[in-house]
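Consider the tokenized backbone below.
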């Protein structure tokens, strides 16, 4: 159970690092995501694809001068939520959760 919690925490921390990179990078352009999509595979590819999709959604729904700010803000919030989950996963009473899961519903 310890290694499962440790692995989940590491994954959430990596996700938060990606969110903070997008939030605090100097230039957020489509070429940033194009480079990530062309140069990586696996874990980073998926999140570069999601970042490109989110940037496209922000670009389509908000004005030109505001969509970068909204993208940065939502990236920061995503990173903060992932850090929160990485910390809070250690405070859950997993024995109690497993007992609830094993009980039949009816």
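A designed sequence for it:
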């Amino acid at each position: 159970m310890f290694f499962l919690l440790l692995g989940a925490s590491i994954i959430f921390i990596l996700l938060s690092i990606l969110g903070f990179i997008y939030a605090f990078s100097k230039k957020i352009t489509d070429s940033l995501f194009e480079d990530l999509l062309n140069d990586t595979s696996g874990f980073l590819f998926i999140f570069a694809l999601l970042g490109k999709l989110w940037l496209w959604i922000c670009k389509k729904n908000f004005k030109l001068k505001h969509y970068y700010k909204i993208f940065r803000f939502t990236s920061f919030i995503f990173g903060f939520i992932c850090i929160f989950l990485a910390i809070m996963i250690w405070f859950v009473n997993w024995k109690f959760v497993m007992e609830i899961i094993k009980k039949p519903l009816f």
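The helical segments are 2-24, 30-39, 43-61, 64-88, 94-102.
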